[in-house]
Amino acid sequence: MRIAVYAFDTITMFHLAAPLMVFGEVGRLGLAPDWETRLWSDRPGGVRTAEGYSIGDVAGPSTLDWADIVVIPSWPLPLSPISEQLRTRLSNAHSRGTPIVGLCLGAFAVADAGFLDGRSAVTHWEMMPALAERHPSIRLDESVLYIDHGDVMTSAGTASSIDACLHLVRKHLGSAVATRVARSLVVAPHREGGQAQYIERPLAEPASDTAVAKVLEWALGRLDEHLSVDRLAVQARMSRRNFVRQFRLSTGTTPARWVLEQRLGEARVLLETTDWSIEAIAVACGFGSAVTFRQNFVSAFATTPSSYRKQFADTLAMVASTAHH
Question: Which residue ranges does the chain devote to CATH 3.40.50.880?
Answer without folding.
Answer: 2-200
